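ugh ok fine here u go
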Amino acid sequence: MRIVLLLVISLASAAVFADGDSAAGMVKAGKAVYSQTCIACHGANGKGAIPGTPDFTAADGPLSKTDDILLKHVIEGFQAPGSPMAMPAKGGNPSLTEADVKAVLAYLHAEFGK
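structure:
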């Protein structure tokens, strides 16, 4: 039995993919959300486009934390110790859903994870 998963991403667009393609579909949906919401601060290369933004490519960076912690930080907002600025809840995009954030995490791991 194939299960269809529907992710609603920002700007009211949607990505629909079958269970067998869920990993690739999550990454694709996450890239779309990242490109619309996260890229302004985190940059296309994940190294941070503005001072104080963490580097996703660093071995000891944010991606070294569990997805549960990262999900909480994105949804609630977070200020890293020593950082001069905080990330606002949902990256400043109140329309993001938990599914959107999970898709972004899948993209981050695929694109920048070691």
